[in-house]
Amino acid sequence: MYSFKDRGHILNTLNTYSFDVLVIGGGITGAGIALDAASRGLSVALVEMQDFAAGTSSRSTKLVHGGLRYLKQFEVGLVADVGREREIVYENAVHVSKPEWMLLPIYKEGSLGSVTTSVALKLYDRLAKVRKDERRQMLSKKETLNKVPFLKEEGLKGAGYYVEYKTDDARLTMEVIKKAVEYQAVCINYTRVTDFIYKKKKLIGATVKDEISGETITIHAHQIVNATGAWIDELNSLEQKQAQSKKQLRLTKGIHIVIDQAHLPLEQAIYFDTEDERMVFAIPRDGKTYVGTTDTFYEEDPINPVATKEDVRYLIEAINFIFPSLNVQPQHVESTWAGVRPLILEEGKKPSEISRKDEIWTSKSGLMTIAGGKLTGYRKMAEEVVDRIVKKHHFKHATPCITKVLALSGAKGLNSQNFEDYIKNKAKVGELLGFSYDEAKVLTTKYGTNVDDVYVHSKSYHTDTGLPLSLYAELKYAIENEMAYTPSDFFIRRTGLLYFEIEQVEKYKEAVLNIMSEIIGYSETEKLIYQAQLDLFIDDAKNPK
């Protein structure tokens, strides 16, 4: 169990003990560091000022991908690293990622010709050590149009066909957090670092405010890691002036739009050139197609970036450029999301030219910072950070890294070979408990071996909850096993419904608020705040500004 009920105990533990490592930031990078360190036997604390994955880690293109486009920028090392990590992420969490064949159309006027694409994909296969059955294929024009009949025909020569991995970024982050907790890491959301504590100019701890109760605690640690993504500069500014790093972030914003397949009937994922020679993904998911991403510099508060009408217009134009017969319109967009990329400042470069490579540095006071990087490379980045920590502090009790072969929460005993059979067997179990076979399949696919902990809530279900059984069971699991505290936590990061089934959110938001209020015990003020917060997120998703 990893429940909201544990908050008081967790805060007390953080306030009482000294840790080997304090990780600040509960996105995928921070979660990965917590898991790597805890699984090596280090004592670990992790704090996150919002909900887990509330920043960039729930707002990505939702792909564990090898960064094929970085070959165009000659970042061969980056492609090799993250390419090899794709399969590790997949095999360690088959319930939150799966292979997705990607079509890369080749046009006469395109940025990549047939030979170049073939060579690039072959190099990609080799660098990423792609398994045999997933290596690239080259398709003729006819084969390409068979896969996507409404693709622009003018100038089409054929396509490359290769595999990426589709994921749920927020759920991946949550499974990493839960696995870290299994290894005794002490992790909590809604806790903000307000100051640092020093001894002889060396960093030894942090003052932390619980954003829910208002309580302030202190956490002491041998090593503090800043893994706050878009908030790296803000956190580093808390350091004493003489200790501050000269490195700076440059934030860029990317948005995605979601369109029902009635208007964008894509059954095949595609990665295509836009008119301005950028690359955009269009990916089918559960009866919808989502398209992204944009890449623009972002100067505003990163707490809640939103899509603008101009952002949406850009993607609509890109869709109609590559699928000219569909005539997709802005009113066909059901929802949007926006995220910011925390990249290392490189003067004079366009947003899409700035390197996605991660960088680690340590200030004079001892604060270690990790910036940049990609979702796909989170495990490798974490390994490198913890290697540095172990070496710096001579932690004799630290064991070697094991995360290459460590199944995440919900994936123990599962792999790409046996997962389909596991889904079918568990779906039959779900049927006996009152779920439909299809509902039980969806739940098993999403939660893996944790599905039994979801199923158990069928026992307390009654129809006057105002929710379908499946959604009720997910809600109870999110509260009691995944530290969900607000309806936004549930609808955005535990289920993704706000992005892909926004009408379901509007239909059930009141029932979810009431159930969470009853279980958690919101005050009347909290209830109003969390209702308004969710309404704001719904409005942002539906109505570009």
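(ticket continues) Second input and output from the same batch:
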Amino acid sequence: MTTRRDVVIIGGGHNGLAAAAYLARAGLDVEVLERLDTVGGAAVSAQAFAGIDARLSRYSYLVSLLPQRIIDDLGLSIRLAPRRYSSYTPVPGGDGGLLVDNHDQAATDASFAGIGAAHDADAWRTFYDGTTRLARALFPTVTDPLLTRSEARAAVGDDALWDALIEQPVGRTIASTFASDLVRGVAYTDALIGTFASNDDESLSANRCFLYHVIGGGTGDWNVPVGGMGAVTAELARAARLAGATLTTGAEVTALDGDRVVTYRVGDIEHRVAADRVLVNASPRELNRLLAAGDAGGVSSASRVAEPAAEGAQVKVNLLLKRLPRLKDARIAPEAAFGGTFHINELFTQLQAGYDAAAAGRIPDPIPAEIYCHSLTDPTILGPELQAAGAQTLTVFALHTPDRLLTADNNDRMRGELQAAVLASLNSVLAEPIESLLMTDADGAACVETKTTRDLEEALRLPGGNIFHGDLAWPWLDDDHATVASTPAERWGVATGVDGVYLCGSGARRGGAVSAIGGHNAAMAVLDERSGA
């Protein structure tokens, strides 16, 4: 027996929930099919350590790209807490470091001078004034139909800025802007989160990554979701349910055919549901797998969805500590150093050396990484006893650990080696070993959890562990493709080439990160089609 819906959404991650809320509020009969037992996908909180009252943002951890427009439209009760400090970066092998204080320009200038980079302080402000102008011009467009490249350039209104950050490798721009190896590295890391690229990346994949990291909210600020990432997902799920959407968990989708009939299993029972529109909150690779399984329904191989290159390049390590560690730089309070993004071994030269090592098949030594302490800004993710005891969480995101280093056979061993490399890199800038501060769980195990790219692919079906479902695209249409954007799905950047089937997740143009933009834009495409727009 085949049931019928107006819209079926494959995947209950945050984008799928956002799309469901918008479409159900418009009066459509919507069902979300989620393979796991809970919705949220990568935007979830979890009790990662047995018997420990701490709910960590297990995969995604900070929010920048979620537009206020979506929060307001859906009536979401979400609080995003700003961080006073932008970043702290210890000088490798030394006892000093660069502390960028968002609230104290004089202190920041003194910190630049303290690492011998006084002249870079003015360059820093000028550079980030430029990214802010870019953000103010481009971020409001991400919840509208796509601009053309020429329109986006005109919106920015500064050809020199456009050329520096869009047309030439951003690493080249950074190298010509700053003199300090350390300052260059701090600036370039935004081009590498989730992207494997050299410092002089001619493909401009680093530029696209950098752009998405600096335009969020029209400011580029990355904020802490109060209550953890699961609080964001819970609000989106609430909005979808209140609007009347059906959220079905434990539903393993096995096929999608050309008549938009979705086959899925709940337990041992197979179900089929037909829909006028199918939104896919999964990667293009996963969509192609479902289309191949549904070939009997008439989807030809020529209709397969284009798959961007998809290789993740990160390892994530979650830690629960008895307290924050002491730094080699005794002049900096740990609460300040870990109050923003803590960069370790991310000199510009170290980033290039790390890329070269990984490209040659080796784990970088030292491994470049950055750290976030959620609990300093938002202690609510810890139970009362942990808060009273001074416990803190650390999330380490290590760069230049591409999926090519791992296989199904070596993943367990490599997970251990990568974790050891991350802890060693962290220890190189601390006054005490991080291992001595790890709490132990109810089973007596150290509270440390490591996720490789293979772990992400297995748990969340992210292709190659790529957190964006594939290489990011520019958030506009090329001028020579603008005339091709003749349908709402193409104008909103969610088309797949398969009739009535749209991407609504990170694989959509302007997808990636916890933004709900992909879900919003797919929903708008459906509503435009129904209205004949």
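Agent notes: The first strand starts at residue 2 and ends at 10. The CA atoms of residues 10 and 260 lie 12 Å apart. Closing as not reproducible unless the customer responds.
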